[in-house]
Design brief:
about 500 residues, 12 helices, alpha+beta, Ribosomal Protein S5, domain 2
Length: about 500
């Protein structure tokens, strides 16, 4: 049913279409504008109902269509209702940046860089995200060609190339770009859904887009403000000299025995002298990332009463080299620690013992309607992994709890990681979702490449490696490489 009225007309018009059969156009009183209503969508084809997904999934698809249409036409007001709830109420705006911020939230709008370039009859304009605002998936990449939302691998590659050297491999920038070119330079009839197009001069457009994005990045101030960690007492840091350093024996009370060593956000100082062989080592080693309160999430180890039999050293602040009875082992410190943390978390979830940090004031996270629907659809599975989300208003969700391992990680960061993994998985089960969340938490909390460890930390991590159930990290990278004495002798031609 279509109702439409021009501003200068005294009355509007009504057209009814029943299963593809056009009715007569008749006059009807209506407001200025056009309204399209769809009822009984499956009345003539009931078999298609069986192909529908869950209500939340179908809603996310509808919201995605709404988002693309609203982005393409900022001067048109849009409203989106979900049942009795108004998910979006977007007024008409002149500035595209205002429409982007209205849909995706202020946190996205404040991290965009303006882009504008042209080459003859080709013109590119819009916004790209700052490198530190990278995403786990390309879900916030929107390209419009002559006002039509499209997907194009070549243009996506050009954007990714522009960020080379400023963004980690596997991460994706935010992109909101409009491409204007003559109609005879693009063929829009190469895809049934019109979501893919073919350009007459694709290499020319590739170069323009690459140059425009790279120039915008070079001209922008990409310096990131450093937020020093808080001191244990909660006060602000007085400067680099006041950054807390790791005390392998739980702080000043090292003489009291083996305390639970805590490694919160800190600056790694040069390694201390190696402790005497007869000295005990800490009970656990904690993750070296901006995630505090991880004592319970570290890998518990029964202290050894005997001196360590294996000597290990750290190389290049990322590898540990261990002398063993059969040769040497080279350990990736991040991969091994990630595996140990992941197994610890998985064991806690299986035994309902996962430590969860309830939030006194829930953190709101602004999302698109499709993202909010996807997140809420899997809310029960996320709660099993310690992340509690609930609908708030519009497309904003509230995060009211998160694992203790991620107590100091902003809710928006956790949600962004989860959304990236959910979108990459096809119809994930509860078990898969929980595993993916635990992967993300373990990866963020683990010691990173580039973190310098004290000898006590090195010894603890080396000793704990035998507790790992797999020789690979959750992402599939090996944690340890072995070179036997026989192989060494052969390389040096001793045999």
């Amino acid at each position: 049913m279509i109702r439409s009225r021009q501003p200068e007309d005294a009355a509007g018009s009504l057209l009814e279409v029943d299963a593809g059969v056009l009715g007569e156009v008749r006059p009807e009183g209506s407001a200025t504008g056009t309204t399209i209503e769809v009822h009984q969508l499956f009345a003539k084809v009931p078999a298609r109902r069986s192909f529908l997904r869950t209500a939340s999934t179908e809603w996310s698809h509808a919201a995605d269509v709404f988002t693309r249409a609203a982005l393409a036409h900022p001067r048109v007001a849009f409203s989106l209702m979900h049942g009795s709830r108004r998910a979006h109420d977007l007024p008409a705006v002149d500035a595209w940046a205002d429409r982007i911020e209205a849909i995706f939230g202020r946190s996205v709008g404040q991290r965009l860089i303006a882009v504008e370039a042209e080459d003859g009859d080709l013109r590119v304009a819009g916004f790209i995200g700052r490198p530190e605002a990278d995403m786990a998936s390309p879900r916030l990449q929107h390209l419009l060609v002559r006002g039509r939302p499209i997907r194009d691998r070549s243009l996506a590659h050009a954007i990714q190339e522009a960020y080379r050297g400023t963004m980690l491999t596997g991460r994706h920038p935010m992109v909101f770009l409009r491409i204007d070119l003559p109609a005879d330079q693009v063929d829009v009839n190469v895809h049934p859904a019109k979501s893919e197009v073919r350009f007459r001069e694709p290499s020319r457009l590739y170069r323009l887009l690459l140059s425009a994005a790279r120039t915008a990045l070079l001209d922008a101030d990409l310096s990131t403000a450093l937020k020093p960690p808080s001191l244990p007492g909660g006060g602000p840091s007085a400067g680099p000299a006041s950054l807390p350093t790791f005390r392998p024996f739980g702080g000043p009370e090292r003489s009291a025995g083996l305390g639970q060593a805590t490694l919160s956000q800190r600056a790694f100082s040069p390694p201390e002298a190696a402790p005497p062989v007869a000295q005990a080592v800490p009970a656990s080693i904690q993750p070296a990332s901006p995630i505090a309160s991880r004592t319970a999430a570290s890998h518990d180890v029964v202290p050894s009463q005997s001196p360590p039999r294996e000597y290990a050293v750290q190389m290049h602040d990322r590898y540990l080299v261990v002398q063993t009875a059969d040769g040497i082992e080279v350990i990736d410190q991040h991969a091994l620690h990630e595996r140990l943390l992941f197994e610890k978390l998985r064991t806690q979830v299986a035994s309902d013992g996962l430590e969860i940090q309830g939030m006194l004031v829930p953190e709101p996270v602004e999302l698109s309607s499709a993202e909010a629907a996807l997140l809420l659809e899997h809310a029960a599975a996320l709660a099993t992994a310690g992340v509690t989300v609930e609908s708030f208003s519009g497309s904003t969700v509230l995060v009211s709890s998160k694992p203790a391992l991620a107590a100091d990680t902003p809710a928006a960061v956790i949600v962004e990681e989860i959304l990236g993994r959910l979108e990459a998985a096809a119809s994930p089960s509860t078990e898969t979702i929980v595993e993916e969340v635990l992967h993300s938490l373990a990866c963020r909390a683990a010691i990173k490449a580039g973190n310098r460890l004290s000898q006590a930390e090195v010894d603890t991590l080396v000793r704990d490696r035998h507790l790992a159930a797999s020789s690979h990290c959750p992402h599939g990278r090996p944690t340890t490489l072995t070179l036997t004495s026989r192989e060494l002798d052969r390389q040096f031609r001793r045999t």
